[in-house]
Amino acid sequence: QVQLVESGGGLVQPGGSLRVSCAASGSIFRIGDMGWHRQAPGKQRELVASITSGGSTNYVDSVKGRFTISRDNAKNTLYLQMDSLKPEDTALYYCNAEITNRYFRTGNYWGQGTQVTVSS
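RE: above sequence
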């Protein structure tokens, strides 16, 4: 069984920084592409940033230059460093990963989400 668990969300003032993490655990053989998504109240979930197993990254325009996605393959952990945060970044942040388990079955997994609130 594979699980993704996010942590590190919280309340931060505009202009501040926050780092969220997502740890994968369970019967993992390989982790492929990973990503961070967010969903604000009344809005659709959107892909914020993604990273391939080789380290190539992609960002939605609204966070380019402010957010940095990274991964530690040895720890099966995904990170999102968020700087210069704005109130419009407030949302529930979810991690997502393509994971092949030890039985060589590949699935798309989601974490439970971590709340990020940007407010003075």
